[in-house]
Amino acid sequence: MNEILERLKSLNLDIENIFPVKGGDINDSYRVESYKNKYFLKLNTAQNFPQLFEKEAKGLQTISETELFSTPKIIKHGITNNDFQYLLLEWLDRGEPTLDNWEKFGHQVAQLHQITNDNFGWEEDNYIAIIIQPNQYKSTWEEFYAESRILPMVKLLVDKNVLNSKERKAAERLCLDLINIFPKEKPALIHGDLWNGNIFPKMNGEITPIDPAVYYGHREMDIAMADLFGGFDESFFNAYNEINPLQDNFEERKPIAQLFPLLVHAFLYEGYYIKDVQTILKKFYF
């Protein structure tokens, strides 16, 4: 910590105090205070999760450059002697969103998804939580979702003895059927990890996305995940559909879009989440 504080001093931020804060299960988080400003500092090991904060900063920058959201300003990120990596952000005070804020956020996410690309994927691999997301560009969603999302996570869970060979084969059959499940759409710029822990209501009630795992994917991934763990007001979904309506029968295919984040959570936490994964896969047993 002292070495990181010494590094931060070189930024001329006039740091006076640093306090630990709750910031999730993955990183150590702190409020850093100077005479005039406050900052949010995240720390993690550099060896276990290479470029974790560099990739997070790139994702935040990508979302910021859309000019749709007021994301926290990136102050600095780096590594200290190949030991710890850090990310220093503008501090945001938490507020309570109003109905208008939820509607505005729904409109903003709908506009985000209108930013398109020729292929599905991203310019580099990045992270969802502490798991590497392969992002090699693919021309179709079914190929990308199978090869870069579902099957790699299933392999991790099989190797961990959390899923068995029958469930792996069910996942493979599901992947073969993806072409009949998702409607054809252009690749959309998505947040990639849009659950309630990765949105932040600012003091004025405005909601901004944080901790992105961006890529060009099927936009239903964001909407399905927003609905998976709760915490999103219904007005968000209604407002989204005003700008960028979901295609028919979304509710029927929503569990397939939720499979990937459930696989991620099953890998991280097992328990409850693996039962949800198994429920989805059972429909693809012989």
From TrEMBL:
GO terms (molecular function) for this protein are: kinase activity
Query: What domain of life?
Result: Bacteria
- Keywords linked to the UniProt accession: Kinase, Transferase
Nucleus: is it a keyword of this entry? Answer: no
Listed Pfam families: Fructosamin_kin
Q: Which family does it belong to?
A: Belongs to the fructosamine kinase family.
**Name of this chain's protein:** Fructosamine kinase family protein
Species lineage: Bacteria, Pseudomonadati, Bacteroidota, Flavobacteriia, Flavobacteriales
